[in-house]
Amino acid sequence: MIMDSVLIKNANIVNEGKITNGDVYIEKGVFKEIAPQISAKSPDVHIFDAEGKYLIPGVIDDQVHFREPGLTHKATIETESRAAVAGGITSFIEQPNTVPQATTIERLEEKYTIASKTSYANYSFMFGGTNDNLEEILKVNPKNVAGLKLFLGSSTGNMLVDNPEVLEKIFSSTDLLIAVHCEDEQTIRDNTAAYKEKYGDDIPIEFHPKIRSEEACYLSSSRAIELAKKTGARLHVFHLSTAKEMELFTNKIPLEEKKITAEVCIHHLWFSEEDYKEKGTLIKWNPAVKTAEDREALFEALLNDTIDVIATDHAPHTKEEKDNVYTKAPSGGPLVQHALPAMLEFYHQGKISLEKIVEKMCHSPARLFQVEKRGYIKEGYFADAVLVDLNAPWTVNKENVAYKCGWSPFEGTTFKSRITHTFINGSLVYKNFKWYDVKNGKRLTFTR
Length: 448
Prior knowledge:
InterPro entries: Amidohydro-rel, DHOase/Allantoinase_Hydrolase, Dihydroorotase_CS, Metal-dep_hydrolase_composite, Metal_Hydrolase. Keywords: Hydrolase, Metal-binding. By secondary structure, the chain is of the alpha/beta class. It has 13 helices and 20 strands.
């Protein structure tokens, strides 16, 4: 539903570390006025009475895999952005390991073209680095591309960047934010070989965190950070999963001054190795879900600002693919629809405040990536906003899962909170399990 002007009344606005009751007026896709009371400017204004619900900025998810082009039997930009807005995610940054991979400017722009026609949410795409595409990397415009993605382990296709000289050259040559997947490939190969010798292909899933071990994560993360310090590169480490890696990061300086930043994903905050028995390969991710102690250390690091942002690493596969034996079951799972409800569940448990959730899911991704005029409810900013009812329980089931793959690791979970309305660039795109045919997403730009 495209709307020129919107007035949201009686909302508890969660923004910049405070909760204030008030009204928000949106005009031509931009927050125009935020005040205790605002009257409708004309009879054409669309008025929404929030009735005391919580209004937060749209969530920015800095790591998703929407599978288009080439893997569209699993997902598409259209289907997954649709699921994302149901979860309050209004902007996403998608990864380059599609088919073909986004490792040339031409391939990257093809993805932007698809999104411009089909995305419900705002979008950006990571450019992919390889051992032999430095020339293409140097062509990337940092003002309209989120960053450079390097797989330092667990890559698909030819995207494993494992030549130390090439890696140093990339780190030294680009001003782009470099986002990395850190797991040491040799450690994983050795561990896999040892377990295959004992079990064949049908390795019990509970050994996944032993194969993709703490050591594999720490070795790779510490090397990447060492290289970033040596070259002065701007490094962002994706999906941390171990307590040990927390010693590699700091909370002693403000986010804007950090050259090395860190992300944690929903599944590493929610699940632990104890859940493999029930969930099996549905919670097989790379890096692996590890111990309850790791999970608690990640949560503590999130709260004390050692970890800077929360993301999903949304990476859907079909149920048939996931039902394979260990060595053939792909890693990854769908999460965008349920990430914010999961974090709000932690709020209900007293583990995190609403203000901190908004900081880590909205404000900090915008600051870290220097996203232009998003991530806040501020006058002059693009009007991405989400209304949340903290007391409207619902249970995840096959009927309300919006992912193309048709399943969720949260099936059977009852969440206390519900996303009731999602506004993107000032227009209502989602309301209470109903989507409007408004593909109002725009290409993200960056103030670099």
